[in-house]
Amino acid sequence: MKRNYENLQATDTYRALSANLCDIPFSFVYDGEEYKGFSSEYFTPVSKDVLRSGEKETQTFTFSFLQTLAVTLILTHYFSHGVTEWTVWFENTSDKNSGVIEGLKTEMSFEGNCPVLRGILGDHGNQYSPYSIDLQKDTVEFSSDSGRATHGNFPYFNLEYGDGGAMLAIGWAGTWKASFSSCGAMTTYTASSVNGLKTYLKPGEKIRTALFVLAPYTVRDEHYAANFWRDWFIRHNMPKADASGRSLEPFSTCCLASDTGLPNSDGSISECHTTWRPSLEKMIAENAKVDYRWFDAGWYVCPDGTSAESYVRGHDWWDTVGTWELDPRKWPGKTFLESTDFAREHGMKTLVWFEPERVTDPENLAKNYGYNMDWAIRVEGERTISNNIGDPECLKWTTERICKMLRENKVEMYREDNNCNASKLWKHLDTLEGERRCGITESKFIIGHYKMWDDIIACTLSYGGGGFVDSCAGGGGRNDLESMRRGVPLLRSDSDRTSTALRLSMTTAFNKWIPFCGANTKEKLSELAPTGVSDPYVWRASYLPALNVDSQFVYDEKQNFDMLRFGLQEWKRVAPYLLKEFYTLTPWHNGKDTTDFTAFCYYDPEKEEGILLAFRQEACDTDLLSVSLPFAGDGDRYAITDEDSRKETITGGCMELRFDAPRTAKLLWVKKI
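and the corresponding structure tokens:
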């Protein structure tokens, strides 16, 4: 039966907070004086709006503060899970500069014995490694300073204390900080966004805090906490599939860039109007269709009007972004629209890569495409130039060019990448603004970024496309909660295009926090290798809600279409379980460790059935794995069917799995009797 995560005590706390706003756990400093909560002594109520929709209630409170600022508190509660969240906006409504705003933070205290902090680190280097910290022994602080919010560290936390705990999140696509400290039975959590913010607001300017999420739970158990979070995430956070409001379901993709016979680099630099048809026709003929054709970087004309080709040194996809117009040499006339029409006629959609936060050659962008060079944030000696979408006119120019390309070619999904750490550039522009403007560029930039995604989603929805985007920022750099309400990470990490051991390592860590994600489907020596190993072991390690098929349909003479069909067809059978409860059954291992077993289970508590995937890794020297089903109750019995042997066994909550050889994978179907 469906788990009941309702938390009446948490709902009572929310009611008390909304009735007494001075207790909201938020504070800031204005002109050197600290203000905590929203006391009527300083905050004059202007308006209050309440919107109740199903299990969710949002209250919006607007105040006048010192006759200079309009301060808006957006407070939301989810009755189904007892989750509360808040965001605070500041807008200068006067005709003069405001005082200096700084120190915006959320601070909460949790009372309970034996506090332990659990979570995972971010992408890039840390590769989602989990941690467990005894807060009675250590104080801990996390900081993300690059401008890509989920590289390095990860703004999601599981704080265990007493008989339960709380899941905590910071939803902000820029810089952020979080700290935890304990004294006795009391643990203090502090969170903030826009590191180093200290700015006045000009008339009409506005900034906001991160989205702060408090999700208390009542059972001190890692499996319970993880699935409480996953259930809330899936039901209340994931974007919708389309304009009908249909829930997002697992889908498959494939990039054709390596199947052209032309020079290629990281992206679709090799694709052109003559290459797509043979690949798609072969895909269809071999009954190996995917849901989305993935059209990656390199399709656009250079700012100087020339064509970017991978074999011209220094003139590749990376150095030529910004025009967002199809290269007419590669895609003359309406040839790209012809390719998306062909895909649609055969039951496939198209996604296209963009990188709007970065520009190249602003001089020629200005000369040929109406760009304003004042929008280009650059520092002498730095290769990267940031496109300042925090400027409303720049945002408008950028969004309109993107939407024009999407609309004219009926592209169903927008894919966004970001290959720069913009924080240094944001700070540089702050200094050009003058004194007391630290953080203003980032604040407006991230607000503009969320608006851009909202407008792009509205665009794709308007002609029957998707209600979400693909969130990528040099791999897993933009997986904050606010972004995940608009997008999904088709590649949870760029590095997850290499070894199976790394893929399994990431699944057992990342999937507890962000249920809808994807990886590659081959084991390769490097991220960009055009070929690699694809067998049942690799396929089963790659079964995620986004199945990113890595295949050459025309130019690989050794292509095993039977194996390709095996993976696609088996994934379609397991896909209905991939957004259900998730349980890890073996200890986590890092991406280089191949000496042990990895096993995990997806379980649908309503249907009381699921799948168990178990892997004896390459250097594992034992053939027997014992596992327990964490969801099994006393006396429960399960029918376990091995997909390969079709043998069925009846078991309780514990079982033994025997593997014939290293580097083998089992898929077991689990059904409660």
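(Above: one complete record from the training split.) The first strand starts at residue 26 and ends at 30.
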